[in-house]
User: Fold this.
Amino acid sequence: MKKLFAVLAMIGVMTFGMTSTVFAQDETEATEAAAPAAQAQAAAPAETAAQTQAPAENPGLHKVLKQKFIEGGAMFMFFVAIALILGLALCIERIIYLSLASANTKKLLQDVESALDNNDVDGAKNACRNTRGPIASIFYQGLLRIEDGADVVEKSVVSYGGVQMGLLEKNVTWISLCIALAPMLGFMGTVIGMIEAFDKIQQVGDISATVVAGGIKVALLTTVTGLIVAMILQVFLNFILTRIEALTTEMEDSSISLLDIVVKHEQSQNSLVEA
Assistant:
C-alpha cells in the first residue's frame, strides 16, 4: 500500500512539472509573439514623427531664397534684385523685337524683282510695305528714290541701314550697365560686411568665428548674388548680340541684292528709251 502511494506521488509530481513547463513555454511564446507587435507600435509613432518633421528639414526654394535675401542685407540685396529685374525686362523686350524683325527675305526679293521686271514700282513698294522687319523698311526707302538712279538708291539704303542698326541695338547699353552694376553692388556689400565684422572685433576685443561670422556671411551672400545676376544677364546679352549680328548680315546681303535688281531695272528702262 505504501509503495502504491509512493508511485502515485511520483506520477503527480511529474505531471505537475510537465504542466508547469508547458505553461512556461506558452507564456514565453506569447511574450515573443507580442514583442514584434510592440516594436511595430513603438516604431509607428517614430515614423510619424519623422514624417511630420521632414517638411521642416526641407523648406521650399522660395523660402530659402527669401531667407538668404534677408541674411545678405536688405539694402544691397534690394539693389541687386532691381538690377536683375530691370536687366531681364530689357532682355525680354529686345528678344521680342528681334523676333518680330525676322522676315522671309528671299520671298520679299522675289516679289520686288518680279514687280520691277513688270515695271510695277508701286507693286514693289506695296510688297515692302506689307512685310515687317528692318529689311523691308530699307527696301522701301530705296524704292522711293528709284527714279533718281541706282547711286541715289544705294546712298539711301546705306543711310537708312544705319538707322535700322541703331534700332536693333537699342537698350543693349542699358543691359550691359545692369551686368556691370550687379557684381559691383555685390562687392560693395562685401566691403560693408567686412567692415561690420571688424567693428564687432573691435567692440568685443576678441577674434573668434562667432564674432565675425555675421559680417562675413553678409559679404559672401551679396557677392554671390551679384555674380549670379551678372552671369544670367550676360547669357541673355550674348544671345541678343548674336541675333543682331545675324540680322545685320542679312540686311547687308539683301541690300546688295536689291541694288542689283535696281541696276537691272534701270538698264532695262534705258534700253526701252533708246529703242
